[in-house]
């Protein structure tokens, strides 16, 4: 067997999600995950720090990616349309999450510990977006409001997209959620 398996990370992620679904997040162990994947604990440690990291690996890149996308948005766009453009831009990072996104959401919803970690992740994204919007000229108060609303649009779009990723792309889900918000604000 080769020393490096290019499929190892995906095998570990799939095994973990299966075990989390079968036994619950709290009851699944790293040993069970590695056994199910047919890999070693050392291989697990190469990709993930712990079993939570299976669900959140890569999420530390999202705040900077979102803020950078806001900064790169067309300079003539007002703050909220710039944020929507940034969400669509960042959506490309989510493509490899599609196969497991709905399962991941279900596991997170089943655990208060994971829900807290998800909220912490989203708070970091919100904070980064606030800073980027201020750099574009928004006041601190407006930037906070727009970032919070924007993250709610992002979450809604992500949930809808991850439920049916083959039906439409993430960008369409962002536009759909933003249009729904706009329609509800107009009534």
From TrEMBL:
Ranges of the DNA-binding region feature: 29-48
Keywords: DNA-binding, Transcription, Transcription regulation
Record carries keyword Transcription regulation: yes
Residue ranges crossing the lipid bilayer per the database entry: none
Domain of life (superkingdom): Bacteria
Cross-referenced InterPro entries: DNA-bd_HTH_TetR-type_CS, Homeodomain-like_sf, HTH-type_TetR-like_transc_reg, HTH_TetR, MftR_C
Keyword check for Mitochondrion: no
Residues covered by the HTH tetR-type domain: 6-66
Name the record gives this protein: TetR family transcriptional regulator
Species of the source: Amycolatopsis silviterrae
